[in-house]
Design goal:
The chain is mostly beta strands and 905 residues long. Helices cover 1% and strands 37% of the residues. It is built from one helix and 65 strands. The strands form 17 sheets. A six-stranded mixed β-sheet has the order 46-49-55-54-51-52, with no helix packed on it. Strands 56, 58, 60, 61, 64 and 65 form a six-stranded mixed β-sheet that branches. A five-stranded antiparallel β-sheet has the order 1-12-11-10-9, with no helix packed on it. Strand 15 and strand 16 form a beta hairpin. The longest helix is centred in the last third of the chain and has 5 residues. The chain is globular, with a radius of gyration of 29 Å. Belongs to the bacterial PQQ dehydrogenase family. InterPro entries: Cupredoxin, PQQ_b-propeller_rpt, PQQ_rpt_dom, Quinoprotein_ADH-like_sf. This is Pyrrolo-quinoline quinone repeat domain-containing protein.
């Protein structure tokens, strides 16, 4: 029986309130449910059950469910029960993409739509109950979740508004634009998930120059309290330890022009917080300082810059400061740890401790005591390299147990070493340049030498130079380091399992180069592989228990869900939903949703049946427009029978991801520029002083050259013969990575020619300054071979004979007749009607016979996994196209052939 949560915090509503009564944009009610009931299970630390009433699962953000009907033993029976295209529900739109994690209350799913509205969906059937959009003040675009309580759903909307909707009908109850007691601007509340607890709604402002966490009365939206990450000048705080301090003093003095860096930018809260009902605390994380003059320039804000890159605990009722823990002092790297805090009661050294897990981008986790903010697991203050221009802190806190590598790997350039270590550094950054064998070795006379007069190294530093390690300093020149403002755990939620005592940590590998003026808080090195995975660590020791490097970035909303049956559900940006063994990380089950996943899965129970659901809407981080966008809410149960339009339970494979960080600009056909690349120039015609010896990222002209196999490309360091007025005056390089095809240094006027005899992407950059980066795309135009492909039989029996989604080792067999004189080289794949992502051929065998002594006939026997093919082809008559690479008289060729088949499912 559900218990109505009626206990209130007893806070008086004070301060300014801008209340709006809007009737112009009511929700579209499709089905009127029974009277709403408040969320059950809104506790800090208990596992969720039939419902999952917060975006964190419970108020402690554990993403852990006590449901156990779906197990490792019966997982093969897990299949889709329904799918709802939420944008198609009236009022319909064609919007796609969203970062929201759904919640479930009394069997109803509530979530943000791609347009920024809110929809309520029946958890058993997928039928929409109501959908809300507002055309008067508009909606906020990127959304990360709604909250529920007191019969309402709380969301955000245009004009910095917090909105309460009737949970039963979607009708607007109130809409406010929060301001402080004296009318203070509290920032832009348009993105972060709201949190409801005991009659209070918490909203976080981000994106703007300054933003607060604000608490509102759930009854009417009236102001209760707020807390800024950037304190006002002279503002003092007294913590649970009795110590009083002036936080503004950690930002240095007010500048001569009156600018106060603590109030000018940054230190905003990008993700929702956690509630500890037992201690009566709200725990929130604040981001990096971005003020005076940029996020990567700390010269005008000396000091630790509280409360940037800091977790802060306050009284949930009053907002009174309790304690803080700063993960990075004087952050000039955008390495803030802003993921939702995860709370747990665990045993450490034989003692029960109330802890919070804190830290994400940095690739380590602080395990802190929730009562006072002190570390529970050991932390050391590590001496750091400092730059006198930056006002760096001399030390930074590091947990003794680390989750991800602390430094880059400078791996040898070699075609046998592709893609290599996930944390490999791009050559020429930090002065690591290839020797004759392709080994990347530090060159003290490279561009980094200009910084040396300003650097101080800790006593006993092992190398005496910057190796690409955490918090390496920078100024105007790019210094590559790990993890990244887009790596580590970034903002994906974590999960804590009561069963395994493991914390599950999704991560991205995406090293970044910092320098003053770098956009987006740092340059993710062009040409590097942007990958990631998930790991688990022991909550009581901090030691990594297992790691599964899945190969796609997992740090931008791909949060895991743990269950009491020791399963771990997690989505990927390539559209795959995975079920993993929570004990060792083995993938046990996978399902293709058809669009990218940038939210956490949920699980709930309706009428005694357990469901797993995920919102597959797509996003952009870090793969940009290559991510397949969508609007699909999927739900799964044991024995589900839903099938898509193709007759398969799954959606088609998503489009190929641009895994390597791309160069700028569209591809340029080689013949239009004489198959010539100009080094260190961003224009082929601009003969000006500003254009010479370019250090911009598009300082190879063109940045993206496309040529056919066999083309000879000329690399030119343009001198006076090309630009008579302002030729390049420095030597420049073309260093190809990571294969190491070529590495040449050219003086002004010199050229180098290279013939590309294999298809592929060939990135290269400059040794003088590594930012200018180009790519040669070498392509093979397929040659059609008529009547060479046959399937046996041509009637393909696909589908799932077991009545549920299975992964049986079944194959489709085809034969390709190879023309005389051609030798198979690799790259065998099928092009299917429903996906732009080719299906890899699982197994290729060569067989042959001789018609005469002088004539040899050979065939490729192709075996394709049914599970890979099924969801990418429609039922009925269709065509499949085969492509592969061959050698013919020593020259690489690509052959293709098409066959007609009939698909039965």
């Amino acid at each position: 029986m559900r218990t109505r949560l009626t206990t209130r915090l007893g806070i008086a509503g004070i301060g300014a309130l801008i209340a709006l009564t809007i009737t112009a944009s009511p929700a579209t009610a499709l089905v009127r449910p029974a009277e709403p009931v408040p969320p059950v299970g809104l506790t800090g630390l208990d596992p969720t059950g039939a419902d999952m009433p917060t975006v964190g699962g419970n108020l402690g953000n554990q993403h852990y469910s006590g449901l156990t009907d779906i197990t490792k033993r019966n997982l093969k029976k897990l299949a889709p029960a329904w799918r709802t295209h939420v944008s198609a529900v009236a009022p319909a739109s064609d919007d796609t993409g969203q970062q929201t994690t759904p919640i479930v209350v009394d069997g109803v799913i509530y979530l943000d739509t791609p347009s920024g509205g809110v929809i309520a969906v029946d958890g058993a059937t997928g039928d929409a109950i109501w959908k809300w959009e507002n055309s008067v003040f508009g909606m906020s675009g990127t959304r990360r979740g709604v909250s529920a309580g007191d019969g309402k759903i709380f969301t955000l909307a245009g004009g910095n508004r917090v909105v309460a909707l009737d949970a039963a009908t979607g009708a607007e109850v109130w809409a406010v634009e929060p301001t402080g007691p004296a009318g203070e601007d509290l920032g832009r509340v348009g993105k972060v998930a709201t949190v409801y607890a005991d009659g209070v709604v918490y909203a976080h402002a981000a994106d703007g120059d300054r933003g607060a966490v604000v608490a509102l009365d759930a009854a009417d939206g009236s102001y209760l309290w707020h807390f800024f990450g950037g304190p006002k000048r002279g503002q003092e705080f007294t913590g649970v330890d009795g110590v009083t301090f002036d936080a503004s003093a950690t930002w240095g003095p007010v500048l001569p022009d009156g600018t106060d860096c603590s109030e000018e930018g940054g230190a905003t809260s990008w993700m929702h917080g956690a509630v500890d009902p037992e201690l009566g605390m709200y725990l929130m994380t604040f981001g990096n300082a971005r003020s005076c003059t940029s996020s990567q320039n700390g010269s005008l804000r000396p000091g630790d810059n509280l409360f940037s890159s800091t977790m802060v605990a306050v009284d949930a009722a009053t907002g009174e400061y309790k304690w803080h823990y700063q993960s990075i002092r004087h952050d000039v790297w955008d390495m803030d740890n802003v993921h939702p805090p995860t709370l747990a009661d665990i045993e450490v050294g034989g003692e029960e401790r109330k802890v919070v897990f804190y830290g994400s981008k940095s690739g380590h986790q602080f395990v802190l005591d929730r009562t006072n903010g002190e570390p529970v697991l050991p932390v050391i203050d590590k001496p750091m390299i400092t730059d006198s221009r930056q006002n760096h802190a001399a030390t930074q806190p590091f947990p003794t147990s680390r989750l991800l590598p602390e430094c880059l790997v400078w791996e040898k350039l070699d075609p046998e070493n592709i893609p290599g270590d996930p944390w490999r550094g791009v050559p020429n950054y930090n002065g690591y340049q290839p020797d004759a064998e392709g080994n990347l070795v530090f060159n003290p006379d490279s561009y980094v030498a200009a910084d040396e007069p300003f650097l101080t190294y800790p006593e006993g530093h092992p190398s005496g130079h910057r190796e690409g390690c955490m918090y390496d300093p920078q100024w105007d020149l790019p210094i590559l380091s790990t993890t990244s403002q887009n790596g580590g755990g970034d903002w994906s939620n974590h999960a804590y399992s009561h069963s395994t005592n493991l914390v599950y940590f999704p991560y991205g590998a995406n090293p970044v180069a910092h320098y003053n003026g770098a956009s987006a808080n740092g340059l993710r090195a062009i040409g590097q592989y942007q990958t990631g995975g998930i790991l688990a660590y022991d909550a009581s020791t901090g030691e990594v228990a297992w790691r599964n490097h899945l190969g796609t970035d997992m740090s931008h909303g791909q949060g895991p869900l743990a269950t009491a049956s020791d399963l771990l559900f997690v989505g990927q940006i390539d559209g795959e939903l995975l079920a993993m063994d929570a004990a060792d990380g083995e993938v046990l089950w996978n399902f293709q949703t058809g669009s990218g996943i940038a939210s956490a899965p949920i699980t709930y129970e309706v009428d005694g049946e357990q469901y797993v659901a995920v919102f597959a809407a797509g996003s952009t981080n870090p793969y940009g427009a290559s991510v397949t966008q969508g609007d699909s809410l999927w739900a799964f149960k044991l024995g589900g029978t839903y099938t898509t339009e193709s007759g398969s339970p799954e959606g088609p494979d998503t489009a190929p991801l641009t895994i390597r960080r791309p160069v700028g600009g569209a591809p340029v056909a080689g013949e239009t520029v004489g198959n010539t690349v100009l080094l260190a120039r961003s224009s082929r015609t601009d003969d000006t002083a500003a254009a010479r010896d370019s250090v911009s990222t598009n300082g190879m002209q063109p940045t993206h050259l496309r040529v056919p196999v066999g083309t000879t490309v000329t690399f030119r360091n343009p001198g006076a013969e090309t630009f008579p007025n302002f030729p390049n005056v420095k030597a420049h390089c073309a260093t190809q990575f990571f294969e190491g095809e070529f590495d040449v240094e050219l003086q002004p006027g010199e050229t180098y020619e290279h013939t590309f005899d294999r298809a592929g992407e060939y990135f290269f950059n400059d040794c003088t300054d590594p930012r200018p980066t180009g790519k040669i795309e070498v392509v093979l135009e397929p040659t059609e071979v008529a009547d060479a492909l046959t399937f046996s039989p041509s009637r393909l029996q696909l589908g799932d004979g077991g009545g549920w989604l299975s992964r049986l080792d079944q194959k489709v067999t085809a034969r390709f007749e190879v023309p005389a004189g051609y030798e198979f080289e690799g790259g065998a794949q099928l092009i299917t009607p429903l996906s732009t992502n080719p299906v890899e051929v699982a197994d290729v065998r060569t067989t042959g016979s001789w018609v005469t002594k002088a004539t040899k006939r050979s065939w490729l026997i192709l075996r394709i996994d049914k599970a890979d093919l099924d969801h990418n082809v429609p039922e009925g008559a269709t065509s499949l196209r085969f492509e592969a690479n061959f050698l013919h008289e020593g020259v690489q060729k690509r052959l293709t052939a098409t066959a007609d088949v009939t698909v039965v499912k």
